């Protein structure tokens, strides 16, 4: 009996043990959006036994009743659940952790990592921070929000282009704009002129037109990551030297369909006027405004002349009434932006769709920009291993434009170069506006009769496959398409008056052009996550990218127009060189391998390499190797930091190489020939006198960065510090050659320069209570650019209509102004002529030393030196966001300091008698002839372009759930570019007549950036 009893007890014990041990399965998801979390740890508390979720967030683990499972993942809070007798499956939803170091960052088309793993500073911007102040495009939405970024709007035209420089200028001939990637699609952000073809104007081909980023609706964006320096070197290689902007758009989510409808009304108006000191007043006006000599220096002076620097100037005067031309050309433009979207789906299929229409009128009369876009995104999970998504975004944008800067007949320039003693609204018997002085066209004729239009049809589409053949391995394949057709039409009617400057206005002008761009990229990204044990984790990434680019440009220009016809068929005479056409093709491809080692969730090492190639260069030079190394050490995970007030802290460092392909076109390495005719025979000449060079290589940047990220008081205060240095070599530059070679220059890899600087980011959650929350942010960055090597000590970049002497010089920042300057006394005051006028410095041009004659006056040749620097000393921004119950108030200031602008408008106003100095001459505050004495001194035109702007201000109220249908109604009042603290001599120190790719900054008739007020309603249901 005793033996049988023991056997029974043993049997019952075994049965009980087996009953208490079981296998638990389930899925771990993100609570915010229901997306599975791969690599999440599932650990039995009190043991080292555990499991890791696969790429679908699924896990399986053997446990006993009464034990507790702990679910954790980087970037999410930890959840613990106790096992009961009847527990067989546990599905867990983890909340995103607020700590900054655990934030998940987008690094490439489908690559993700937590911030703590990265050795680079990366800026992340969420949807709500982009659209508070109703921005027109994504670039304006980014202003003031990125440390180290100088984001400038080059023109106040409704479709005006933007320039973005991340950590300074990185190329002399090429663009410094970053690479844009939207949902894995490499986006074309080029600026191609189709309305100012420059054949007739004689101006250099300076483009201040639209960026194609203006086609993207900010309301469609979920988040943006900005990668500075070498952070994206392995992923994008030869396209990453200027940084990368990664845009993620909104997508479908599981659950009931969510609808959003918003609409807004905007007003645009001139922020400030200039030269108002003479408007509406009668002054004794000099007939020649003190500018033009009546004869040569040897002519006999009369009672009506004054001698200034050897010239006799006419000083006769008469009474005039002055007009405010600004009231004639500027207006208050209206805008509206209407948007509707839906999001929904289930565990298998998710969908999102949107449609938006925006129209924005400019502050120059009869100008506007319109954008109609519709976007659809679908995602379907076929099974546990295969998921596919498809997205398509169609955009139609159009604009009614007026000539912008760099042409004398633009409305702004026509006003600047015309004395304001004429009534622009006067008409002749036929109803035509009368001409103005010097044969210049009436600015109002440009506004009323010029028809300049641009239209773009664009499709941005992506197809993606996500395949998970086995646990912790994923393969992502992407096909991205960016195609657009850009059309431009210009009609300038016959001018009703003869001898107009430019002369082609006499007979009218018409042009039609098209620019077709086809861009395709396909990427394969492979990723394997290997958690060796809870302390060691390896992440291996590998893949390839292939990009093809094709464009075709065609243009026709004609003059001598037929009556009553406004299309391209109106011309009787083709302009020389028309029709013209061009075609460009190139391919870019590369392969990369990246390995990240994580040790105890506090020490991370990353090594990567990429082999890249581009058909822009010859076979011998097209393949380039780009390595990358980085490390991150999370100090706050050490035991000695646990009780400190420092809630998160890490040190980071990185080094990487990347390239740039923007300095030359696909065929620049070849010698191109043009045909001609000589005595009836066909001739060939080198086009542009530029000889090819088959030995060209891509420009290359080697960047290292060190920094720290610190969070204090449970991350209520977050500080990010970075120091970087980018050494750029193999800069592509024109090198002069002897005319006997049949050319005057050739492109070579001969330049070097570097950028180095600091970036500081500061965020402070000053108040965190149930009904009130206040966040403050501050960004500061300082970049120093130095050109370190050139084929010659100094050379001038291409000239421009403003006459800006833009130079590149060894040992100096890129794009300095180098020209004539004032003669000064030792105390810095002007050295005046015996007649009391300022004058230019003279001396020995070989040594650059100033010289004085016996009377102490300058003698010798006019000297040149650096008279300005367009590169800012530093960039800063400050923002605040306050929530009080259902109210939200936000404000953002940003600006640049230490910028010099070559302001041609300021000089011209004085010359025609409407400027500030001209007024002082007329009132006797300055001696007659003062303007003439300084008019040819180039330093006179260099002015301070520093500014701090009230960039955004927004006030909104959320009513919350109104009824069973409306989940929320939000009303928002906002403003943009409302005020500028600056000393600029013209309209706006931010604009740049040089356009998107200019290394310098100058002002020559650019449309000023308007101040805008918006009222918006947003419904969610």
UniProtKB/TrEMBL annotation:
<comment type="similarity">
    <text>Belongs to the TonB-dependent receptor family.</text>
</comment>
<feature type="domain" description="TonB-dependent receptor plug">
    <location>
        <begin position="116"/>
        <end position="244"/>
    </location>
</feature>
<dbReference type="Pfam" id="PF07715">
    <property type="entry name" value="Plug"/>
</dbReference>
<feature type="domain" description="TonB-dependent receptor-like beta-barrel">
    <location>
        <begin position="455"/>
        <end position="830"/>
    </location>
</feature>
<dbReference type="GO" id="GO:0015344">
    <property type="term" value="F:siderophore uptake transmembrane transporter activity"/>
</dbReference>
<dbReference type="GO" id="GO:0009279">
    <property type="term" value="C:cell outer membrane"/>
</dbReference>
<dbReference type="InterPro" id="IPR037066">
    <property type="entry name" value="Plug_dom_sf"/>
</dbReference>
<keyword id="KW-0732">Signal</keyword>
<keyword id="KW-0812">Transmembrane</keyword>
<dbReference type="Pfam" id="PF00593">
    <property type="entry name" value="TonB_dep_Rec_b-barrel"/>
</dbReference>
<feature type="region of interest" description="Disordered">
    <location>
        <begin position="833"/>
        <end position="861"/>
    </location>
</feature>
<feature type="signal peptide">
    <location>
        <begin position="1"/>
        <end position="19"/>
    </location>
</feature>
<keyword id="KW-0472">Membrane</keyword>
<dbReference type="InterPro" id="IPR000531">
    <property type="entry name" value="Beta-barrel_TonB"/>
</dbReference>
<keyword id="KW-0798">TonB box</keyword>
<dbReference type="InterPro" id="IPR023996">
    <property type="entry name" value="TonB-dep_OMP_SusC/RagA"/>
</dbReference>
<dbReference type="InterPro" id="IPR012910">
    <property type="entry name" value="Plug_dom"/>
</dbReference>
<dbReference type="GO" id="GO:0044718">
    <property type="term" value="P:siderophore transmembrane transport"/>
</dbReference>
<keyword id="KW-0675">Receptor</keyword>
<protein>
    <submittedName>
        <fullName>SusC/RagA family TonB-linked outer membrane protein</fullName>
    </submittedName>
</protein>
<dbReference type="InterPro" id="IPR036942">
    <property type="entry name" value="Beta-barrel_TonB_sf"/>
</dbReference>
<dbReference type="InterPro" id="IPR023997">
    <property type="entry name" value="TonB-dep_OMP_SusC/RagA_CS"/>
</dbReference>
<dbReference type="InterPro" id="IPR039426">
    <property type="entry name" value="TonB-dep_rcpt-like"/>
</dbReference>
<feature type="compositionally biased region" description="Polar residues">
    <location>
        <begin position="844"/>
        <end position="861"/>
    </location>
</feature>
<dbReference type="InterPro" id="IPR008969">
    <property type="entry name" value="CarboxyPept-like_regulatory"/>
</dbReference>
<dbReference type="Pfam" id="PF13715">
    <property type="entry name" value="CarbopepD_reg_2"/>
</dbReference>
<keyword id="KW-1134">Transmembrane beta strand</keyword>
<keyword id="KW-0813">Transport</keyword>
<keyword id="KW-0998">Cell outer membrane</keyword>
């Amino acid at each position: 009996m005793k033996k049988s009893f023991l056997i029974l007890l043993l049997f019952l014990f075994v049965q009980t043990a087996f009953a208490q041990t079981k296998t638990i399965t389930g899925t771990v998801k993100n609570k915010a959006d229901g997306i599975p979390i791969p690599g999440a740890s599932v650990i039995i508390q009190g043991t080292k036994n555990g499991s890791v979720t696969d790429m679908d967030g699924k896990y399986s683990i053997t446990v006993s009743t009464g034990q507790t499972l702990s679910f954790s993942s980087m970037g999410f809070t930890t959840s613990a659940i106790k096992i009961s007798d009847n527990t067989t499956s546990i599905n867990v939803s983890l909340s995103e952790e607020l700590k900054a170091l655990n934030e998940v960052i987008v690094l490439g088309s489908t690559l993700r990592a937590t911030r703590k793993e990265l050795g680079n500073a990366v800026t992340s911007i969420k949807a709500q921070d982009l659209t508070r102040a109703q921005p027109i495009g994504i670039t304006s939405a980014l202003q003031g929000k990125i440390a180290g970024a100088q984001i400038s709007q080059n023109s106040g035209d409704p479709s005006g282009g933007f320039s973005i420089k991340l950590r300074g200028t990185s190329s002399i001939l090429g663009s410094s704009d970053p690479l844009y990637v939207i949902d894995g699609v490499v986006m074309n952000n080029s600026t191609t002129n189709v309305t100012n073809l420059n054949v007739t104007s004689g101006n250099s081909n300076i483009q201040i037109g639209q960026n194609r980023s203006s086609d993207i609706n900010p309301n469609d964006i979920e988040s943006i990551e900005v990668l500075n320096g070498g952070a994206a070197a392995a992923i994008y290689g030869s396209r990453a030297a200027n940084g990368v902007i990664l845009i993620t758009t909104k997508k479908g989510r599981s659950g009931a369909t969510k609808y959003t409808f918003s609409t807004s009304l905007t007003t645009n108006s001139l922020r400030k006027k200039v030269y108002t000191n003479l408007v509406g007043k009668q002054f004794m006006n000099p007939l020649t405004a003190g500018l033009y000599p009546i004869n040569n220096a040897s002519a006999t002076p009369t009672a009506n002349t004054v001698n200034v620097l050897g010239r006799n100037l006419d000083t006769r005067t008469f009474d005039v009434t002055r007009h405010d031309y600004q009231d004639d050309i500027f207006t208050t433009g209206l805008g509206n932006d209407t948007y509707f979207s839906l999001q929904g789906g289930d565990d298998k299929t998710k969908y999102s769709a949107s449609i938006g229409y925006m129209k924005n009128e400019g502050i120059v009369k009869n100008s506007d920009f319109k954008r109609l876009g519709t976007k659809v995104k679908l995602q379907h999970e076929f099974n546990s291993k295969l998921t596919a998504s498809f997205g398509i975004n169609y955009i139609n944008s159009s604009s009614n434009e007026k000539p912008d800067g760099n042409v004398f007949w633009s409305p702004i320039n026509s006003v600047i170069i015309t004395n304001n003693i004429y009534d622009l609204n006067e008409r002749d018997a036929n109803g035509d506006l009368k001409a103005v002085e010097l044969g210049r066209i009436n600015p109002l004729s440009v506004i009323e009769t010029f028809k300049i239009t641009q239209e773009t049809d664009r499709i941005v589409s992506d197809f993606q496959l996500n395949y998970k053949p086995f646990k912790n391995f994923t393969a992502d394949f992407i096909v991205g398409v960016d195609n657009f057709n850009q059309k431009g039409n210009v009609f300038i009617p016959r001018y009703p008056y003869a001898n107009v400057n430019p002369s082609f206005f006499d007979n009218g002008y018409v042009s039609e052009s098209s620019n077709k761009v086809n861009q395709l990229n396909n990427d394969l990204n492979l990723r394997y996550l290997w958690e060796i044990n809870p302390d060691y984790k390896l992440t291996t990434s590998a893949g390839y990218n292939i990009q093809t680019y094709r464009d075709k440009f065609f243009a026709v220009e004609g003059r001598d127009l037929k009556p009553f016809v406004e299309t391209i068929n109106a011309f009787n005479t083709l302009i020389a060189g028309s029709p013209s056409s061009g075609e460009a093709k190139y391919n870019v491809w590369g392969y990369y391998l990246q390995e990240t080692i994580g040790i105890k969730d506090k020490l991370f090492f990353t090594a990567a390499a990429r082999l890249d190639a581009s058909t822009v260069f010859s076979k011998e030079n097209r393949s380039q190797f780009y390595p990358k190394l980085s490390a991150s050490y999370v100090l706050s995970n050490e035991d000695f930091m646990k009780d400190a007030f420092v809630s998160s802290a890490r040190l980071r460092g990185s080094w990487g190489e990347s390239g740039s392909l923007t300095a030359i076109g696909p065929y620049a390495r070849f010698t191109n020939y043009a045909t001609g005719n000589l005595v009836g025979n066909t001739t060939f000449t080198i086009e542009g006198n530029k000889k090819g060079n088959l030995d060209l290589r891509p420009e290359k940047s080697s960047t290292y960065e060190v920094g720290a990220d610190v969070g204090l008081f449970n991350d209520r205060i977050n500080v990010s510090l970075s120091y970087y240095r980018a050494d750029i070599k193999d800069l592509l530059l024109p090198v002069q050659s002897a005319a006997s070679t049949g050319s005057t220059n050739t492109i070579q890899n001969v330049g070097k320069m570097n950028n180095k600087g600091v970036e500081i980011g500061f965020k402070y959650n000053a108040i965190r209570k149930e009904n009130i929350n206040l966040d403050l942010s501050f960004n500061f960055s300082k970049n120093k650019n130095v050109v370190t090597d050139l084929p010659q000590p100094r050379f001038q970049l291409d000239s421009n209509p403003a006459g800006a002497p833009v130079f590149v010089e060894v040992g100096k920042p890129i794009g300095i102004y180098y020209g004539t300057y004032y003669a000064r006394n030792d105390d810095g005051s002007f050295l005046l002529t015996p007649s009391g006028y300022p004058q230019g410095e003279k001396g020995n041009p070989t040594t650059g030393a100033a010289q004085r004659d016996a009377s102490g006056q300058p003698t010798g040749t006019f000297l040149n030196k650096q008279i300005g620097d367009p590169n800012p000393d530093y960039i800063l921004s400050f923002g605040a966001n306050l929530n009080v119950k259902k109210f939200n108030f936000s404000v953002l200031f940003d600006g640049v300091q230490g910028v010099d602008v070559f302001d041609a408008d300021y000089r011209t106003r004085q010359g025609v008698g409407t400027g500030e100095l001209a007024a002082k001459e007329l009132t006797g505050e300055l001696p007659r002839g003062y303007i003439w004495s300084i008019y040819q001194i180039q330093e006179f035109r260099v002015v301070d372009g520093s500014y701090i702007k009230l960039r955004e201000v927004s006030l909104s109220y959320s009513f919350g759930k109104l009824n069973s249908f409306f989940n929320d109604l939000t009303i928002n009042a906002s403003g943009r570019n409302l005020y500028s603290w600056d000393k600029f001599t013209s309209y706006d120190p931010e604009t740049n007549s040089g356009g998107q790719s200019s290394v310098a900054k100058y002002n020559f008739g650019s449309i000023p950036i308007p101040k805008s007020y918006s009222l918006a309603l947003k419904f969610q249901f």
